[in-house]
Amino acid sequence: MKKVRKAVIPVAGLGTRFLPATKAQPKEMLTVIDKPIIQYIVEEAVAAGIEQIIFVTSSTKRAIEDHFDRNFELEYRLRQKKKTAEMKDILRISDMAKFVYVRQKTPKGLGHAIYTAKDVVGDEPFAVMSGDDIIDARVPAIKQLIQVYDKYQDIVVGVTQVPKKETSKYGIVDPIYIDDKTSEIKKIIEKPKVEKAPSRLAVTGRYVLTPEIFNILGKGKKGAGGEIQLTDAMAEHIRKRAGYACTYSGDYYDCGNKLEFIKATINYAVKRKEFRGPLKRYLKKI
Ligand code: G1P
Question: What is the CATH number of the domain that holds 180?
């Protein structure tokens, strides 16, 4: 049985929902307190045993490469000022995993972004983690998916319940429940009309896929929005083989959405001793 060792993180999108903040910086580098969104996601992957992170980038995303690399000038200055804790933290970031970067030259959709990583992934199962979806969980969400993969040996998507009226924003699964957390997927649909959504279980940026998916993505079939959709490729895979949904335990924050981003910030802030008291008092006051 092959282990899930690699994670593909697509970060090529323009981030227009967060303008003007994203005019000159990647949306994935927006900070939730003092860490960029993307670092939360990489830390989740590493905590789940992922060894190699494959970023699918585009021309405006160099800050992400710099963030996960060494910064000798900064290290030199921190050493001079004897800021050892900061120094340790900075060094840890570049040592967390092996980082690989591939470019998506044209924005043809999520499915196309994943296909761009085909040669680096090779012939093994791999995780896909969206670059702006943070999931705060005791057991890393992607680890929960990997556990389902290890058991059933086929593709897995992470899902969570969303309000009915929001189903048209997501990939939605039609589940056959195996237990309260795991289901076999009967059908999966990308951004269905609300009245056509087969359930309220939405795909939220976590997947475990097998290399067979590349054969389907390679056909370049366009779906919703004229883009090559990962959801459509999974739907085809499931028709031929099988696929599973994991209702992970954890709180999902779509950090490409401004309100969700604010909620993520407050969530992580009240968890930190230094902020909890003053922040709660301030929120009460306003
Ligand atoms: C993508 C996927 C969709 C998923 C969503 C949230 O859509 O295509 O299936 O539900 O991410 O992770 P996007 O938000 O990029 O339009």
Answer: 3.90.550.10
* pLDDT digit string, tens, across residues 176-220: 999 999 999 999 999 999 999 999 999 999 999 999 999 999 999
Q: Does the beta carbon of 160 sit less than 6 angstroms from any atom of ligand 1?
A: no
220 domain-assigned: yes
Going by pLDDT thresholds of 50, 70 and 90, the confidence category of residue 168 is very high
Index of the ligand 1 atom closest to the CA of residue 133:
12
DSSP E strands in 148-193: the ranges are: 155-161, 171-177, 182-190
pLDDT tens, position by position, 99-127:
999 999 999 999 999 999 999 999 999 99
205 lines ligand 1 (CB under 6 A): yes
Q: Is residue 92 part of a domain?
A: yes
Determine whether the shortest distance from the Cβ of 130 to ligand 1 is under 6 A: yes
1 has pLDDT over 90: no
The torsion defined by the Cα of 248, 250, 256 and 259, in degrees rounded to 10, comes to 140
Total number of domains in the chain:
1
Residue 195 domain flag: yes
Name the residue range of residue 196's domain: 6-285
Q: Tell me what the mean pLDDT of segment 49-77 comes to.
A: 96
Handedness of CA 131, 135, 140, 142 (dihedral sign): negative
Ligand 1 contact, 202 CB (< 6 A): yes
Nearest atom of ligand 1 to the alpha carbon of 110: 8
Q: Is the CB of 228 under 6 A from ligand 1?
A: no
**Torsion angles phi and psi, residue 66, rounded to 5:** -65, -35
Query: Is 1 a member of any domain?
Result: no
Query: Residue 155 to residues 84, 163, 215: CA-CA distances in angstroms?
Result: 43, 25, 14
Which residue among 9, 160, 201, 203 is best mutated to probe the pocket of ligand 1, counting the most ligand atoms within 8 A of its Cβ?
Answer: 203
